[in-house]
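re: ur question from yesterday

yeah so i grabbed the chain u mentioned. its 114 aa long if i counted rite. heres the sequnce exactly as i have it in my notes:
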Amino acid sequence: QVHVVESGGGLVQAGGSLRLSCVVSGIDFRASVLAWYRQAPGKQREWLAVIGLTNITYYKESVKGRFTISRDNAQNTVYLQMNSLEPEDTAVYFCNAADESYPWGQGTQVTVSS
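ran it thru and got these structure tokens back, copy pasting raw so excuse formatting
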């Protein structure tokens, strides 16, 4: 059974940083392409970043250069380092497979104050 748990969110001022973590159990983690998503109030969930099996990464244009996705296969964990945060980054952040095939976790709330 796949289980996804995100953590690391919080309240931060504009320009600040946060590091999100996501532990995924019940899968062959090393063989999984993983991604981060977010959902802002009143908006649809959107894809942010993906990391492949060889650590190749791709980013949504609006977060490129500010966010960094990484993975630790030994810990079944994928990370999202977020720098230069903006109020527009306020959302609930989720991780999932790149094809969104896992059950969605509860996410972690990120609030950026101006």
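noticed a couple things. The two ends are 40 Å apart (CA to CA). also The longest strand covers residues 18-25.
anyway ttyl
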